[in-house]
Design goal:
Number of domains: 1
Number of helices: 3
Oligomer: single chain
CATH class: Alpha Beta
Number of strands: 5
Shape: globular
CATH superfamily: Hotdog Thioesterase
Helix content: 10-25%
Distance between the termini: 24 Å
Order of helices and strands: EHHEEEEH
Strand content: 35-45%
């Protein structure tokens, strides 16, 4: 099956830092600042959401690699904006560049790889 996703497809998501997405809440630290795991989850969500409309019914993407840098802390109540770009595609393999910003500038960046899978077959294989 061929998947026609536009090269350079961009995505954007926003989140406000609150008590649910801090380092303290995630257990990745003891301070109420935007957690690195929350930033990575936002990056993955931005990437997969940006291209889902181009996939046939029943198909999704799964993340397989994240190479991220969390550059600076973001305090409570600040908004984080995440931008993804589909840089290239090799069959079912998708390569993204992603950046995250708060009100003071860039807070993180990553290279991210996802694979297109048939969701039902993927789950069936897991349950075997």
């Amino acid at each position: 099956m061929e998947f026609n996703i536009p090269h350079g497809k961009k995505g954007e998501m926003r989140v406000v830092v609150d008590e649910t997405n801090t380092a303290k809440a995630y257990g990745s630290g003891l301070i109420d600042v935007f957690a690195t795991p929350a930033m990575i989850a936002l990056m993955e969500c931005t990437a997969h959401s940006s291209i889902q409309e181009y996939l046939p019914d029943g198909y999704v993407t799964v993340g397989t690699e994240v190479n991220a840098k969390h550059i600076k802390a973001t305090p409570m109540k600040d908004e984080v904006v995440c931008n993804s770009v589909l840089e290239s595609q090799e069959g079912k393999k998708l390569f993204f560049t992603i950046e995250a910003f708060d009100s003071k500038g860039k807070i993180g960046e990553c290279k991210h790889t996802r694979y297109i899978v048939d969701a039902a077959k993927f789950i069936e294989k897991l349950n075997q």
